[in-house]
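[step 3/7] fold_predict: job queued, chain A
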Amino acid sequence: MKILIIGAGSWGTTLAFMLAEKGYSINIWSRENDVIADINNNRRNHKYTSGLCLHDKIKAFGDCDKNGILKSGTGFDIIVFAVPSEYLRQVSTGFKEFLQNLPDTINAVVNAAKGIELKTNLRMSQVLSETLPKELISIISTLSGPNISSEIIKKLPSVSTIASKNKKVLVYLQPVLSTDYFRVYTNDDLTGVEICGSVKNIIAIAAGISDGLGFGSNTKASLITRGLYELTKFGKKFGAKTSTFSGAAGIGDLITTCISTNSRNRFVGERIAKGEKIKDITENMYMVAEGVTTTKAVYEMSKELNIELPITECVYNVLYKNADPLKSVKILMTRKFKSEN
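[step 4/7] structure written:
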């Protein structure tokens, strides 16, 4: 089996590592020449996965090498997009012609990004549906769950969810993606899984703000609980299944992203609470915290649809209106009394 992974950041490299160990041939694309050289020459990706030793079945390439791959007659069984959500349209559009020219062997397209596109308000599978060759639209899926890459690299047990409207794709991908330390469940609620993966990053930023302000476990549990309610409320508006929110892609991913010290979104919130500006934080991060742009997209959607999302609104005001984090907590705590339901 041959797999093309588009994106050599921490998650793309982790997936390449995991799948190559299963014996699959991996081609991984990067726009960064130093990353390509490091993978091919040193069997490392020091920039994103520290000292992880990569299997020799992994071959990195860039845009200038695309034609060489085509001329070699290399067909791919699976295409994985592992680029940050804000860059997915640009990158997938750039690969459209390349994918049209590949042999007709592609059985599945996997999106591994989490977010909602600004301005269009599209989920990532919808972005791919607009940018990829029409022959591939019916086999698009999304991989989502509590998947901190640094833990998976260490082969610590974890679960994930592969979601698609195409049940044949789910049956095909489940055994391919699963290992004895990475257990993959299937879910046909693509909308719900993608909304969970997007909105939980907003709540994680709020959790980081809580940490940065020195609050405790009660506060974190309260944020996760009300964050889950907020996530569910938003998702159901778009027809997501209630059961999805209690699964790995819902509460599972939400908990991990809010509590892990390796969560980029939680870390952004922590730095904001300590007085740093979001512009300075994002400019100095070479890995992307997808929740920053997703906060703006979800906030704008909530206003258009008249959905009350108080945590999202507070995070938006802190990120984009320079609101004081501590005062924002007081606003949340002194809202009008209401039932929990």
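[step 5/7] annotate
The chain has a mean pLDDT of 94.
The beta strands are 2-6, 25-29, 58-61, 78-81, 108-111, 140-144, 158-163, 182-187.
exit 0
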